[in-house]
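Sharing a chain and its predicted structure for anyone who wants a worked example. Both blocks are below, sequence first, tokens second.
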Amino acid sequence: MIEVSAKLIGGPIFMPGSKVGCCITFTHPPLPSDSRSQSNNDVLENLAWASVQINCLCLTNDSINFPSVMCVTKDEKFLGNSETSFAPCLTDNGHVVLSTKPKILFCDVGLSPGENKSYLYSETLPNDAPPSYKGHLVKYAYKITVGMQRLNSPIKLLRVPIRVVVIHGLTEGVTCENSIDLSPSNPFLESQFKHEECDMALQILQNITAKRSPNFYNITNSRGKVARFCLFKQAYRLGEDIVGTFDFEQTDVSCIEFTVSLQCEEAVNKDFIAVSPRPRKDNVSIVSYNTQHQFCANTLKSFLQLAIPLNVTPAFSTLLVCVKWRLHFEFVTSTKTSGERLDETKEGTCWTGPEHVDIETMVWDLPIQIYPSSLSVRPSLMTSDGCGGGPLRLCA
């Protein structure tokens, strides 16, 4: 029996163009102390081979015709079966949109009781890799698959999930802004350009999301000004709070209440939507996350604070789907005075609420930019199919 464990180097979150590191350990547990003494050939465990590969699976709902040009493993179905061939995605649902070249860790390795051997797997993600995403219409999921086999035994697979995040609109710009290095270089040494490019992208991201440049918006309808909204910045990182203020002074329309929601808009390319006899809008899905609702009748100023969840996916765009973020506003307005005057005293004027109010509802969407947070995460240990269960065992 051999136990296999995988430890991600640098954490489970990566960027396109960055290196994925994984330390894979094969262990032969020690024999019980009360076991009978046996020859070395009887207790030695042998593995014929082990190989590693990174795959990205794309899953869609029934209303989407997945484009065949995005599949990268069209011939995997001709490899036979998963018991005799290393085909990590042969039995999985979905379409493989990214697949790295398999790397062989070893061939014909023997382990004595209590012995273990570790191997370091390293692979660079393509620059055009899509991010990890779990939407209503489209899903992208990454995994590192370790395949291994003993003689005359079926293949065993260890799957380690990873998360890929994309800095939308920044990675391409970083490559273009870098000047060409004309100094002599050794072609046999690994270039540090990709590491510098990743660090520069994170630095640009830090500069963009740290800027505070208040933007003011006059919200109006057909009868005049409803409110003035101030958003302190347009770019945010995962886990940050969206902060803004409402000013209801010097307005033409009385606002009774408002609702603000943080929404994610998932739009699938219409070219890939299945033809339906009835008109429908299956290519767009809108999901609301955090919402703030407030009554603001007779209020001069109000405050907005919405938290951005850490587990959502920032904005990105692929050939199949485009994901954007926005603030969705709903205002309830009235054309009449919000109360009736009772009497006037030295302290002020007393008002009473009306029994009936004629209202109108208006909506407004404000696009915002959401970027990834810091990628520095503790290394994680996976000893099963990424579910945190017991170790994967290879038995004779």
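Comments welcome. Residues 167-179+190-209 form one domain.
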